[in-house]
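Quick question, first post here. What does this chain look like in 3D?
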Amino acid sequence: MSNQLLTTPSAARTFASGPLLVLLASVLWGTTGTAASFAPAAASPLAIGAATMGVGGLLLLALAGRSALDVLRSGQIGLLLAGAVAVAVYPLAFYSSMSLAGVAIGTVLTLGSAPVFAAILERLLDGVRLDGRWALAAAVSVLGLLLITGGGETGGGSDVVLGALLGLLGGAAYVVYSWTARRMMRGGCGSRGVMGAMFGAGALVLLPILAITGGGLLSSASGLVVAGYLAVIPMCLAYVLFGAGLRRTSTSVATTLSLLEPVVAALLGVLVVGERLGVAAWCGVGLIGIGLVVVSTRR
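> Answer (accepted):
Ran it through. Tokens below.
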């Protein structure tokens, strides 16, 4: 991303072809928790997660076509397998976290922890030195994350703690498949082929889980509508946008930009689902928004 303000045509083009696409994907991702709340009561979070990224993964594979085979021939099988495992873990942890801790907290924990995991991963594996501006944005966003998780009226208890831990696991998985996707793109593979191959491979794990757990979700019209929406819009379409944006955006910046998702999710959780956030939680939403602006404008 350009290190200048977005005042020149080249800077604007860089923003539009990279960070803006990640932000658009984040808005679509922010609708997942609210959409999942309309699933039948009998639908398990494992089934919802497996349907979303299992069916969505097949759609991405179909869109990729022959370019997915090029990824298999690229000699990056280790990265592909690591990304596919992370793809399978992410929805199972994410939707279970939302089920236990609530839409707002589950989403904020999963995505809010991602920039920290991304910084650690890029530092250890790529030797990336992150600047003070990113550190400020991450610190402000993490503070906002803590305020949101402490400011929601969820009732607390062991379910929230377990949901929080699953949210952290989901955040780590999200970073792993984002990093492996970017690494494969830097190795010469196209974004559509990488996303199709990685998510298609993850679908091989998720679809059997859907077959085992999906009875409560797939046996009703409302469940099919929810599953269809989640697979097509916040999964397939959003990851096409994310993959394209990731070519011009580092993993650490992309995961920080993705903090728009928990803000959208929290707002929809309040406005549509009827969840309640206290004053501290609303302050947390504002802080995440500030961090988002800081990291997206850069210097």
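The chain is about 80% helix and 0% strand.
The CA atoms of residues 199 and 220 lie 26 Å apart.
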